[in-house]
Amino acid sequence: MKTKLFFFSAIIFSLTINAQIDFEAHIIVENHPDVLGPYTANSADIDGDGDKDVLATSSIGDKIVWFENSDGQGNFSTPKIISSSLGYPLYLEAADIDGDGDLDVVSASTFGDVISWFENIDGLGTFGPMQIITTLEVTKVVHTSDIDNDGDIDIVATGENKLVWLENIDGLGSFSTQKSISNNVFASEAFEINDIDSDGDMDVVYSDSFLSKLVWFENTNGQGSFGPEKLITNSAGDTFTVVVKDMDNDGDLDVVSTSYPNDVAWYENTDGNGTFGPTHIILNSTISVDKVNAEDLDNDGDNDIIMAKYIEETITWLENDGTGAFGSEQTLIADFTFPSSIFTDDYNNDSKIDILATSYDQNKIIWFENKNPLGIVENATNLFNLYPNPTNGLLNIKSTTSIAEITVYNNLGQLLFTSEEKNQMDISTLCEGIYFIKINDENGQTETKKVVKK
Fold first, then answer.
1. Predicted local confidence at residue 231, as pLDDT
2. Under a CB-based contact definition with an 8 Å cutoff, are residues 303 and 320 in contact?
3. Exposed site from 3, 144, 177, 385, fewest CB < 10 Å?
4. With 0-12 CB in 10 A as exposed, 13-18 as middle and 19+ as buried, what is 321?
5. Contact (CB, 8 A) for 122 and 101
6. pLDDT tens-digit profile of 278-300?
């Protein structure tokens, strides 16, 4: 990639924001025989066309399915079955397991006690048969990441009162036996993988709900050897969700969790190395909060909070002022029974973060379009599409016109570099965070896209 560097430029990049965002609900599926009890929904570009499709579990129906984003604008197909032979699948995730450049699917089958993966055979969403990775009793959630820094995707899972990881031995989807992270945890669905101590490898944050502990395990050598648990808090009981995000805009990763009976809180990574400070209460509610997510909904450069409340049957969000202090709740939807998951992504390619949610009881999956009319000022014509987003580094650019110039800015409006490449660009050298990609075409038209570097 050819670039011209301008790290100390003081160009002002105008962003107009509005915290009072309207969201418009769009039903993806409701009461379909192939989607019964959807416990989890998330998204990824399954068919490689540059937009975000939706993956979901049909827990009661023992299926996992996906929905094609048929026009890139958030109009989704009927469910396409990936598997119909799983025992109460609670979770699934997309990742390139076999290193062929497309996204496969990993799932956890709670009653079947298996973790398995399904190959995306043609890169277009045609999936092969189930390939069992391991058996693990009462497994609930699996997450994917490169644990041993060898360039392929490994798996972390819980079950049988232990936390384990499985090495992708050959980069093609052949996995090792279970490697222990901890043999002394109560099986939970609340854990995340991320670089807590800023040393370039993946650590694991885990909530042991039975013992009311929120802890993290350091990947001590970057190759999957984990140290003993390090305490974040010992007052986080019955935690259903753990989120690892920078909540105070200081450049390191903090931790957000739910906690029985009513609290949603975050814990500051005070030194960027995994030393955590006291509890910061986000919400002390009279109603139990089960699921939480964090993302920048109002385009102001910080992570806001989205919450699902089981008893109250609502999904709400709270604005972050940039320091980790939050405003009042704003309701997205009411009468949404058993809201079992929330996820964030851009489903209509307008560079605004939308929200995806499931109602287990209503057999419904819905996405909420972010209707903030102000957002990024130049982003009106939608001539260009950047993917994958979020990205680890490489961005592909789909354009309806010829590109003349691409410039990259940080969230302070400072010009970082200009790229002379036209169809893709590499931002792997940038730190994790939010960036703005300004694209000019040969006709003088301009768009600015928001990109998340992870």
1. 96
2. yes
3. 177
4. middle
5. no
6. 999 998 876 678 899 999 998 88
Average pLDDT, rounded, for the chain: 89
Query: What is 11-45 written as a DSSP string?
Result: ----B---SS--EEEEEEEESBTTBSS---EEEE-
What percent of the chain clears pLDDT 90, i.e. is strictly above it?
Answer: 65
Taking 3-state DSSP, the helix, strand and coil percentages for the chain, each rounded to the nearest 5, stand at 0, 50, 50
* DSSP 8-state secondary structure symbol assigned to residue 77: -
Token pair 């009981």 is at which residue?
237
If one counts every other C-beta atom within 10 angstroms of the C-beta of residue 220, the result is 15
Tokens describing residue 120? 């995306």
Q: Which residues, including other chains, have CB under 8 Å from residue 92's CB and lie 6 or more apart?
A: 40, 42, 55, 56, 57, 64, 105, 106, 107, 108
How many residues make up the chain in this entry? 454
Entry pTM:
0.80
Are 447 and 379 in contact by the 8 Å Cβ rule? The answer is: yes
What are the structure tokens assigned to 207, written together?
């909530």
Q: Which residue has the tokens 């992504």?
A: 345
11 pLDDT above the threshold of 50: no
Under 8 Å between Cβ of 359 and 32: no
- Joined together, the tokens standing for residue 370 give 């972010």
Query: Amino acid identity of 170?
Result: D
